[in-house]
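Hi P.,

Sorry for the delay on this. The queue was packed all week, but I finally got your sequence through. Input first:
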Amino acid sequence: MNPLLEDTLRRLAVHYSGQDVEEVAMNRPGEVWVKMAGGGWQARLDPALTEDYVVILCQQLANVSGQVFHRRRMPLLYTTLPDGHRFTAVVGSNVRYAMGDVQGVAVTVRIFDPERRISLDRYGLKAKSALAAAPLLHGQKRYDDSPLEDLLAAVRGREAILISGATSTGKTTFLNAIVQYLPSESRVLTVEDAREVVVPHPNRVHLVVSRTETTNGVDFMRVVDAVVRMTPDVIICGEIGISNAPGVFRLMTTGHTNFMATIHANSPEAALRAFYQNLAQTNPGIDAEAAIDIIGSAFGRIVQIDRLGGRRVVTAIDIPRMVRDAVALNDA
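Then the structure:
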């Protein structure tokens, strides 16, 4: 780690380096909220966490990651801390805490623990050892009557998988769990705005593209152009948002349907609409029906994750082709 950055991070690391910490949030100077595994948020006072400190930390993180950060011109930063944690910050007039405030800070650190392995049964799914011997028939409506076995057969068959859910439902954790079922000889490429996907396969490449302005001008679309020339078996796109939706859509229209991604939505139907809406933000003239048809045809499965009674549970594993037809019918 950069020695200067390491020294600056110490103030904040006091709060996120403890055992069983899942997330740390700062809503205003001098105070942090810490979320423990299996528990709620706990407030802590820390006068050392000033607004000036947050600005200095963001400037150093931006320099290290090749991004642009400025208190007034670009007061937004998405990046990964040296130990793998996801860091998001907004400062200045875009943040208000109380009535009458004219500026503030908002910081979130999502903890990455490489030792934390979540099995699929934690999501209410049970695997069967007989799955490994199940025949793969690409294009079949279902590989197996069991939703889990059907999903894992689709993963092993390198079909595109979209994981849908609200914030903190465990989408990336679930993605990390199913990546382990990809054939061991697969060449896997990841393209993320923060390094979160854990790939056990030896033949892999991890690419990081910022959601904000960068010093080298490399955006998601340029990286996609490079990725498709690097002969991947599977591309993992991370979370689909406004910035990368056009790039992922381009993969679909050029025949690269061997990818995985996550998206914020509360149902498989909403996931298709959310993808289209992200795409339409940068392509306002795009045909909605045609776009949803392409998106629905590209993914092999949509996995829906929800929180039920404090637990993260898979509530649906749908074939997008069927969902797409339902969306089209409802829109009509």
